[in-house]
Amino acid sequence: MTDFFPEFEDWGGFVSALGDVVDLEATARETGAFHRSRKVGDVQSLLRLAMLYGPCGFSLRSTSAWAASTEIADLSDVGVLKRLRRSADWLETICQRLLAEKIDVPSHDRPVVSLVDGTTITGPGKNGQEWRLHCRYEASGEFQAIEITDKHCGESYKHFPVQAGDIVVGDRAYARPSGLEHILDSGADFIVRSGWRAFSLSSPNGDTFSLLGALGTLAPEQTAEIPVAIRTNGRLLPVRLILRAKSEEAKAAEVNRVKHKQHRNRRVGDPRSIKAAGFIIIVTSLDATVCDADEVLALYRTRWQIELAFKRLKSLIPIDRLPAKDTSLAKAWLYSHLIFALLIDTLSSNALDSPPCGTGCQAT
Fold first, then answer.
1. Mean pLDDT value of segment 78-96
2. 217: pLDDT strictly greater than 70
3. Among 101, 246, 316, 325, which lies 20 to 30 A Cα-Cα from 109?
4. What is the pLDDT of residues 229-252, one digit of tens each?
């Protein structure tokens, strides 16, 4: 594992990096992962088993054999399985403490821009259990919050705590009134992409508003901004509707994609969906004096960063190759990977913040 962490000369360095953030002994006992030193000598050895089975890619049997050969634990593969199952909540706690350490208190002149999205991880087998990682990612390059749920839990802004002054950016999956209320009630703002029928819209005074009618007034690559309100739970949420007509080439590609999807799902195409395919529809609570329409669109386009973060998780740390079928074991495997990824993020940030040479070096 030290190959991935050149700053760590041994396992003690890895444990020390975690120990600076979380009390491993206390949290292991609080969560029931460790009660007494029977067959596993200490908390650090239990953590090592989790990292071997997780990001190091060992099977349960290989983990058992390695632990016996190094005398850190005396467990069969079934014994390793049972201990790791009981460690899932502990590993989640470590992960959440690492995330909490990364959250900065936003300054008055620099709001935090957060990108939210989810990705799915499927367990082994034809009908493997699906897990969903709900993630909040700071545009400057670090994860701020992660929640693991099963596939039945949909994407929503409500998964994430937000602070006053934050700007939270999401795609169409987050265009839900309850999530937007959560953001606004926290004193934060949102930028979210929307479909043509995601919200019940009205004019600011409550009159009916036709989104499709507004789309018909735009020429290719033209942008428009309209003050509207979202009707939800007996209240009106005042927002700005920002519409951007795509180029003819981009519009044709999106129309073909929509038609192909409708054909694949054996559905009769809705002409309104075809019409809306030629436009980018953004809803935001940001005041126009803070961000004009072009700036809002530019902020939305930063979403590619969280997509790249997911690709790194699945390529550099293959978190999508989940081998476990058991629910608790799967969670332990996933959280051990996330701990590993968060430490890499921290080390990378520290390296980027440090000068390339020691004190006293001079530029040439």
1. 96
2. yes
3. 101
4. 999 888 899 999 999 999 999 989
Block residue for tokens 């043509």: 196
Residue 54 lies inside a defined structural domain of this protein: yes
The domain tally of the chain equals 2
Parallel, antiparallel, or unpaired: how do β-strands 223-232 and 142-150 relate? unpaired
Q: How far apart are CA 139 and CA 171, in angstroms?
A: 15
Q: What is the 3-state secondary structure (H, E, C) of 95-157?
A: HHHHHHHHCCCCECCECCEEEEEEEEEECCCCCCCEEEEEEEEECCCEEEEEEEEECCCCCCH
Q: In which element (H, E) is residue 14 found?
A: helix 11-19
Residue 308 lies in a domain: no
pLDDT digits (tens, 9 = 90+) for 268-300: 767 888 889 999 999 999 999 999 999 999 999
- Give the H or E element holding residue 8: none
Q: Which two tokens stand for residue 90?
A: 């502990």
Question: Is 116 a domain residue?
Answer: no
Distance CA 117, CA 101 (A): 21
Would you list the DSSP string of 246-271?
Answer: PPHHHHHHHHHHHHHHHHHTT-PPPH
Residues 87 and 18 placed together within one structural domain of the fold = yes
**Digit-coded pLDDT (tens) for 88-138:** 999 999 999 999 887 654 444 567 899 999 999 999 988 889 999 999 998
Q: How many CB atoms lie within 10 A of CB 15?
A: 16
Average pLDDT over residues 180-187: 95
Structural domain for 46, as ranges? 11-95+319-351
β-pairing, 235-245 vs 142-150, is: unpaired
Query: Is 118 a member of any domain?
Result: no
Upper half-sphere CA count for residue 108 (Cβ side, 13 Å)? 0
Kindly provide the b/e burial profile for residues 191-210, where b requires at least 16 CB atoms within 10 angstroms of the residue's own CB. bbbbebebbebeeeeeeebe
Residues 294 and 335 in one domain: no
State pTM to two decimals.
0.85
